[in-house]
Amino acid sequence: MDFTKVKKIISNAKHLVVFTGAGISVESGIPPFTGNGGLWNKYDPKFIELSYFFAHPENSWKEINKIFYEYMGKSKPNFAHTEIGRLSKEGVIKAVVTQNIDNLHQEGGASNVIEFHGTTKTLICPKCKKHYLVTKEILKIIPPKCKNCGEVLKPNFIFYGEQIDPQIHDNAFDTIVKADVLLIIGTSGQVMPANSLPYLAKQENKDIKIIEVNPEKSTFTDAIVDLYFSMKATEFFKKIK
């Protein structure tokens, strides 16, 4: 594996963008949703279907609290997150577009992070649209309710059956098509419409260099990737540090 070459590409990049999926957070103890060891092999994902949430908010929130807050909420950034944070602070990485909802990029030090699927760190009132920061206090009563109107609050991430916020979609698109180097980490490339973004980057800039880091090949690997590293994200960043 040519780490000298990839170091040179990264250091010479004028607009390096990182695109991440669930794989980067596996080493922080957060399992992927699909595939081997995926959450949906253990749990029925209907509890985060939008229609089920509105019909059965208490049942939905019991699972949400257990999985996304009591379990995933304890996770910390790993070396890949903190290296992306460091390179972001140094101006090497211009932006991170992530499919993850765990906030670990921000905790790892990255600043310009576009959360394509939203975040677990805030709740939103479906009725009056008031936002709440998640705290231990707010989760003492399940389901949590809006102080303004009494409506059951919803985690501020995309549920099944819910559309991506057009503003976030456009922001991610505008960011990724500016890239002269795109670093894809830990995504299978199967989740729509996020999986269209790397293809759009390639379409907009035929000369873009696309580097992929993933233990297993994705839908991108043989289609648009220039350099593929079959390894964990933490191992990759240790090699190029």
How would you describe the overall organization of this protein?
The protein is 34% helix and 17% strand. The protein is of the alpha/beta class. The protein has a six-stranded parallel sheet, with helices on both faces. It has a three-stranded antiparallel sheet with strand order 5-4-6, with no helix packed on it. It starts with a helix and ends with a helix. 37% of the residues are buried.
List keywords for this structure.
9 strands; 34% helix; three-stranded antiparallel sheet; elongated; 241 residues; six-stranded parallel sheet; alpha/beta
Can you give me a brief rundown of this structure?
The protein has 241 residues and is α/β, with parallel strands linked by helices. The chain has ten helices and nine strands.
SSE layout:
Blueprint: H1 3-12, E1 16-20, H2 23-26, H3 50-55, H4 57-71, H5 79-89, E2 93-98, H6 104-107, E3 113-115, E4 118-124, E5 131-133, E6 154-157, H7 166-176, E7 181-185, H8 196-204, E8 209-213, H9 221-224, E9 227-229, H10 233-240
Parallel strand pairs: 1-2, 1-7, 2-3, 7-8, 8-9
Antiparallel strand pairs: 4-5, 4-6
Helix pairs in contact: 5-10
Structural class: alpha/beta
β-strand number: 9
Low-pLDDT segments, ≥5 res = none
Helix-strand sequence: HEHHHHEHEEEEHEHEHEH
Given the structure, what is the number of helices? Answer: 10
Our estimate of the beta-strand percent is: 15-25%
The whole-angstrom Rg is 18 Å
